[in-house]
Write a structure and sequence with these properties.
Length: 146
């Protein structure tokens, strides 16, 4: 696999919650660019290690210490390593809901009423590592939308 020099989720749409860059080969010194409304979660061998917040990050052992520690423990440490990076949006999302129901007739049918309920809720990801592990980590899809 080619060595990636720069990773960024540049084409995020407003409805996108997460995006997976799988099977990356990074090296120390590669750039990870995280937008103001994103986080980047580093994975290796199915385990989530480090989370980077907004900004331009040059990959060093200082900003991904848990992944570096795992690579050292496995005696894989070097200038190049394989990983996955999952970007997670920290924007607020809106979900609409609603429906109709009919009251149960109690006697005469003319007293039956239609009841409607409608609304929305707002949600956002607070813990990107937990979100990736619990919701997005096992999915084969590269993108999650609300």
């Amino acid at each position: 696999m080619p060595i990636i020099e720069r990773v960024a989720w540049d084409n995020a749409k407003p409805e996108d919650i997460a995006y997976r860059f799988s099977k990356l080969t990074l090296k120390y010194g590669s750039q990870v660019i995280v937008m103001e409304n994103q986080w980047a979660v580093f994975f290796r061998d199915g385990k989530a290690y480090d989370v980077l917040g907004p900004g331009r990050h040059t990959i060093t052992s200082n900003n991904i210490p848990l992944l570096t520690g795992a690579l050292k423990a496995l005696r894989i440490i070097g200038d190049i390593f394989d990983c996955e990076v999952i970007f997670v949006s920290n924007s607020q999302f809106r979900a609409n809901f609603g429906g109709k129901a009919y009251s149960a007739p109690s006697g005469d049918i003319k007293y039956q009423a239609e009841i409607g309920f409608y609304g929305y809720l707002l949600y956002k990801v607070e813990d990107p590592k937990l979100f990736v592990i619990e919701f997005f980590g096992n999915r084969r899809k590269h993108i999650a939308r609300h």
